[in-house]
Every structure is written in C-alpha cells, then in structure tokens.
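Q: Second attempt. The first request was missing the SMILES, so the protein and pyridoxal-5'-phosphate are both included now.
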Amino acid sequence: MTASPSLAIRGHTLLPIVQGGMGVGVSAHRLAGAVARAGAMGTIASIDLRHHHADLMEAAKHCRDKDTLNRLNQVALDREIKAALEIASGRGLVAVNVMKAVDAHPAYVRQACASGAQAIVMGAGLPLDLPLREAREQFQARHGKLPDYVTACVGGGSNAMGIFTAFLNDTSVKLVGVEPSGEGTDKPGRHAATLSMGKPGEIHGMKCYVLEDAPGVPAAVHSIASGLDYPGVGPQHSYLKDMGRVQYESVTDKECLDAFMQLSRVEGIIPALESAHAVAWAMRVAPTLSKDTHILVNLSGRGDKDADYVAKLLGI
Ligand SMILES: Cc1ncc(COP(=O)(O)O)c(C=O)c1O
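A: Got both inputs this time. The predicted holo structure:
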C-alpha cells in the first residue's frame, strides 16, 4: 500500500485523515480534539450538541421552540469547540460540520468561526482522493479485473464521491449510491431519500436535489443513521444522477439494521449505520447476480459509535 500524501490546509500540514462529520455527534469535542492532537483534522458535528450539556438540556425542557433550541445548540457549539481546541493543544485542525444545521446554517457558521473553529466542513468530509486510488488499485491487484459494481451510502455525498471518482471513466463499472428510505419513502418526513424522492432545488446556496415541503423550506427527514438524515445532497451527485452515470437506490432502517448485524457476525466488521446502507443494498442484489460478479462496498466508518444504540434498538 502506498502512503497517501499529507494534506496541506490553510498553511497546516496534516495527516491525510479527516474525521467524519455528521454521525460523530456522540463524542463531540473529545474525539475531535484527540484526532487534531494526533495531527489530523478532527470534526465536531454542529447539530444537537446541547445533548452533551445537562444545563442546556434542562433549559430546552422548558422551551422547545426552534429559535431557543438553535440558540442552546450554539452555546453548546461554543463550549465544544473551545474544549476540542484545548485538547488539540495547537496541533492538527479542529473543524465544525455545519451540514445538518439546515435552517439556521449561517448562524452556526458564524458561531463556529467566532468560537475559534479552524475549518468548516460539509458532510463526512472525506477528501476526494483518499479512498479511491487505493481501492481501485488493490481491487485490480487482487482480482485481476475491475469490480462490476461499486456502492457507497449517500448522505451529503462525500464518501460516495471519494470512491466513485476513481471509477467514473470505467464505463463497465456500475456505480450505485444508497440513500436511506428510513421507515418508507411513502412516509413523508420519515425518510431521507433525497435523490430518489426529491426535486431540483436549492439548499445552503447550492443547486441540487432537495426534499422540500415548499420551495425553500427543507422537509423534515429521518434515518436510523444520524449521518444520513439530510434533505439535500452534493451537486456532483445531482449531476451524476441526471447524466445517468450513477444509479441511486434506497434501503430501509430495517434492512440497514440487518446488514449491520450480518456484517458484524459473519465478518467481525462492525460498520457505521451509515455504511451499513451500502452493505444492505449489496445483500439485497447479491442473490440475483452470478457468482463471479463482484461488488465493491465502501465502508465509510466504523460502527463503534452505533453499538449502544443498535443494542438498545434490538433489546440485546
Ligand atoms: C460514517 C459516515 N458515513 C457516511 C456519512 C454520510 O456523509 P457523506 O454522504 O457526506 O459521506 C457520515 C456522515 O456523518 C458518516 O459519519
């Protein structure tokens, strides 16, 4: 395996590691600070950080309107950034992911900057050329051919773009992005299948497919995977869908849970709930394909962060 070159961001030379964004709210400043201290980019998910602060949760109990919740989240964001910077001790970079702060987006960006965040990222934030070259090279070296399918989950779209980019010119390789259909695409507000069910629109100043209640009003979304419940999607995916180069499918919360358990039990690999969507799609289609068909599944993250949640859901 060849070493990936360092990342140079804003005058900092970093390890080529960017910690994922939206699904990592559970650990907030501790993990982001530790990743930065190790010389890479740690990321704090900006949304719902109040859950980490008992006093803010108490305040939220008495007043649950959107403005109050956003204000409490911003107080939490300020505390989390400062705590992460302290742990980082001047090393690496501490970034804030603002992707899910859908309707209070500029306020969160302003808060993050005012509190000392050193970068703002959208989505899992995986750099485009990290997984791709190696996955393509390693697959070819091992199998003497390219995969027939490459699949990845799609929230904002960064991990999928990371792996798809290497294969875009390989027309024999089918690319499949997998979105969350949550409790069913027939239940508005209970899925986040933006490319499958949304329409062209605008969110966060970018033109892309969007799930909206009315023009400019993002719809409520849901997924068992906290990193996938986003009513927009990267413009590249919107373009790739329109030109027909990538096929977008969706899997339900239940299929995702089954895949999470199956991969954990059979391979000893605990996938992130986000990544388990791609595994679930592969499990759905594999029985319909010939034995010599290869599906390359991108695992965008580890499921340690989800283990407690899954155990609670399954009562184990
Ligand atoms: C592990 C993991 N995978 C995937 C995603 C989805 O983001 P994206 O579609 O930008 O890769 C997230 C978002 O937080 C994540 O944490």
